[in-house]
Protein 1
Amino acid sequence: MTINKKIENETLILNLEGRLDTGSAPALENALIPAFVQVKKIILDFSELSYVSSAGLRVLLMGQKTAKEKDVPMTLVKVPEEILEIFEIAGFCDMLTIE
């Protein structure tokens, strides 16, 4: 997975490309979790993401928990239908902010 990172107006935008799985989940965790003390909003762009495993779901849950603790909104955007189905089956649609 490739993570393209940019900051605009105190908003971190992470564009994820490829597969969010056991091998790539630590990289997302390292890019995401420390950012909650550096910015006022986080956007995860999933437009180029093709797959999310349980390891990826775990990182997203950690991110959502941290977002609530730090009062920094985290939003997922441009989520492909296949990944949205995974979120629905896992019950994540109610936990995550998805646009």
Protein 2
Amino acid sequence: MLAENDSFKPTEEDNAYFLSEVAKATQTGVYTLNFKDELFFVDSIGRSILNIPPNLKLSVNEVEQLFAKTGSVEKLLQTCLKGDSFKEEMQMISFDNEEIWMHFTGKPKYDKSSNIIGIRGVFTSIDMFVRDRLAQKRHSRIIEAQNDRLLHFAHIVSHNLRSHSSNLELTLELFNDVADDERNKVFYSYLDEISNNLSATLKHLNQVVTVNSQSSSLTLIDINATTHRILDYYKKELDDIDAAVQIDFKKMPFIEYVPSFFESILDTLISNAIQYRDADKTLHIKLSTKLKKNKKLFIIKDNGRGIDLKKYGSEIFKLDESMNKINGESKDLGLFLVKNQIEALGGDIVVESKPGDGTSITIKF
């Protein structure tokens, strides 16, 4: 074995090189904040991670813009001013508006009199690991949602079809014992109604199955053209009630989606806005799109009757508690199918509403 001697010890230059290479390999930047001049220093690696121009001096207010969550810098400052250190997973925003997850640490910086004069620390990009974790959570939610759909599907099969089948069998048994012609007509009408109900249920079953079978057929959709096509279908109803429809798709004119899903979703939402309008008001419907922190949003608002979400919030997307049933009218798949179609493609739907104050529905793609 070679004996340890001074010639084999790393020099200061070696140590600086090793630290620099480790920082580059792990994408770790260092920073300091001086309270006196309120300037924020970030080293070259940190600037590279966040795409901060090399010679740009950052004030505390400008640093705030680098954090996705408002008030993050203030929170960290207050922690260090108390003499405490911090370790946080935080989402930062680079100068080219890219969101990056960081492991952010900081400690108070003291002068010779033990006064806190600033903060210093490091931040390491953990974006790949956090996004993988979030993706796994999303996939888990999608699987859970698919399981829920299967349970609802089983509910349809076990309850609705069995009910129609039993009614049909009972009616046929009674029909065999009937001889009077007038009574025959009555039973024929019963059979016709039961047959129609059975056909409708089978149609709904097919719609639910279609959600899973078509979820990979994505196409670039012109939102404006598709919306006008649906509105044209309801033109007479809208004209009859003098409804006002406002459209603003400038922020997101196109979306890559399953065309049949998008049309079905629009049809249901517009139909609901018409059906559940407030008879004492002129119906106003506003349809718009937004881009919010890389999220694509489609929003439809109306000034209709509204929904008591405290009472019905957990029910409106369920198969057996649809919008129609909540409003005391005959029911179909309604928002149950809409939610299934949206979630099948990894999206989400949020409802905001108050009785008498209209409804706002936001679809997150």
